[in-house]
Structures are given as structure tokens and as C-alpha cells.
Design goal:
Elements lengths: L8 H25 L2 H54 L5 H84 L2 H13 L6 E5 L2 E2 L8 H9 L4 E2 L6 E3 L1 H17 L1
Parallel strand pairs: 1-4
Antiparallel strand pairs: 1-2, 3-4
Helix pairs in contact: 1-3, 1-6, 2-3
Length: 259
């Protein structure tokens, strides 16, 4: 039975740096999208808000028109009553009945005046609401047009990078399966805690990549020996030597070129 090959520290370091290069490539792809997904979401939210507001404005407009119809119906009813009272006055038996019908007629005339006043007020409200509706409709059309443009941009980018991103995400998961769990947990934690997502970095000019803190020569020798996993005391990043980094970069660039 063949003996299972022992996984050395160097193997772990190479696998971790390969994983970092894959994840960094995924980050690059997502950075190309920039703020587009957020812009699209904001526009969709704004359009939803404008649509709701327009619906309410149109409902208010319809309600105001219904109120005008109601007042017009009331005017017609009052006119009908005035005509009725006028006819009845021709057949009254005494002044008291005549005066009573006169008061009823005057009351209905006041009701007509009040209804006409309300109609005028409602018409002013309608004109004001129409201005607001027109303004909001125009803004909604502009936002929809802007959203269509932004979605087109985003869809084009997604279409262009979709296959590569999906392939890289699969490879990232595959690589994680080859690395012991405690290292993957540490790697993910470091990636989450640093701005640029770099959890594994090479030594550059005597310091860890992206850092200005010099690493003591003895530590640099230990890193280059690849006998144990060493982290940067300032950033917590896992450190690899420049030669290993260049070798893995060349390897991964060939892989990326095939995607």
C-alpha cells in the first residue's frame, strides 16, 4: 500500500498563497463593478418610492374628483328642491306656509353657494395635485431611464465576468478543501479584518507586502526556510518569501489565462 504523501509547511504556504491569488482575482472582478450594484439598488428603491407616491397622489386626485361630483349632485338636488318649493308657494293657504317655504328655498340657495365654493376649492387642489403629479411622473421616467442604463452597464459587466467568477469561486472552495480547517478559518478571519482582503502576503523590500514595518532579518530567514507558518506581528497577515510568491503567481497566471 502506497504511503500517503506528507503535507509539508511549504505545501501549506503554497496552497494558502494560491488561494489568496484566486480570491484576489475574484476581488478584482467585483471591484470592476464598483458601486454599480448599489446604484442600481438605490434607483430601484427610489422608483418604488416614487411609484407609491404617485399612486397616492392619483388616488387623492380621483377622490377630489368624486367630491366634486358629489357637490354637483347636491347642487342639482338643491335646485330640484327650490323648484319644488317655488311650485308649492303657488298653493299655500297662509303667510306662515309661504314664509316657511321661502326659508327652505333660501337655505337651499345657500347650500348651492357653499357647494360651488367647495367645487372651486377642489378645482384649485386638483390643479396643484396635477403639477405635483407631472413633476413626479417626469422624475419617475428619468429614474427609470437612468436605471435601465445602469442595469445595462451592470448586466454587460456581469455577462463578461460571470463564467470567470463562477469558475474562480469553485476553485477557491476546492483549494480550501485541500488546506486544514484551522488555517482556512485563520485565513478567512484575516481577510475579513484587512481592507484589501490580503491575508497572505510576500516579503517586499524587507517588509510584509503593503506594510512599512521592517521585518527583522532573522524572521526573514525563517520565512524563507518555509519550516513554519509565520504571521506579521503588526497586521496579522501570513507571510511568504518573495521567491515562493513569484513561483505561485506564474503558476496562477497560467490558470487565469485559460479561464
Amino acid at each position: 500500500m502506497a504511503k500517503k504523501k506528507e503535507v509539508t509547511v511549504e505545501d501549506r504556504l503554497r496552497a494558502l498563497y494560491d488561494l489568496q491569488l484566486i480570491d484576489s482575482r475574484i476581488d478584482e472582478i467585483r471591484n470592476v463593478r464598483g458601486e454599480l450594484p448599489l446604484e442600481v439598488q438605490d434607483l430601484e428603491d427610489e422608483i418604488e418610492g416614487l411609484t407609491t407616491r404617485l399612486q397616492k397622489l392619483n388616488d387623492d386626485l380621483a377622490n377630489t374628483n368624486d367630491q366634486i361630483k358629489g357637490k354637483k349632485n347636491a347642487i342639482e338636488e338643491s335646485k330640484g328642491l327650490i323648484q319644488k318649493y317655488t311650485e308649492q308657494q303657488k298653493n299655500v293657504r297662509n303667510n306662515r306656509e309661504y314664509d316657511s317655504l321661502t326659508k327652505e328655498t333660501e337655505f337651499q340657495e345657500l347650500e348651492i353657494q357653499l357647494a360651488e365654493k367647495h367645487i372651486k376649492e377642489f378645482k384649485v387642489q386638483i390643479e396643484q395635485k396635477k403639477v405635483v403629479i407631472d413633476t413626479n411622473t417626469q422624475r419617475l421616467d428619468e429614474r427609470k431611464s437612468h436605471l435601465a442604463h445602469k442595469k445595462s452597464e451592470l448586466d454587460a459587466i456581469l455577462e463578461e465576468t460571470k463564467i470567470e467568477e463562477e469558475t474562480l469561486l469553485k476553485k477557491s472552495e476546492d483549494y480550501k478543501k485541500t488546506i486544514e480547517e484551522r488555517l482556512v478559518i485563520a485565513y478567512d478571519r484575516i481577510r475579513t479584518n484587512v481592507k484589501n482582503g490580503l491575508a497572505v502576503v510576500p516579503i517586499e523590500r524587507g517588509a510584509s507586502g503593503g506594510s512599512y514595518f521592517t521585518i527583522p532579518p532573522q524572521i526573514q530567514v525563517e520565512i524563507a526556510s518555509r519550516k513554519k507558518i509565520i504571521t506579521d506581528e503588526h497586521s496579522g497577515r501570513i507571510l511568504v518569501d518573495a521567491i515562493l510568491a513569484e513561483e505561485q503567481k506564474a503558476k496562477m497566471q497560467k490558470l487565469f489565462a485559460k479561464l
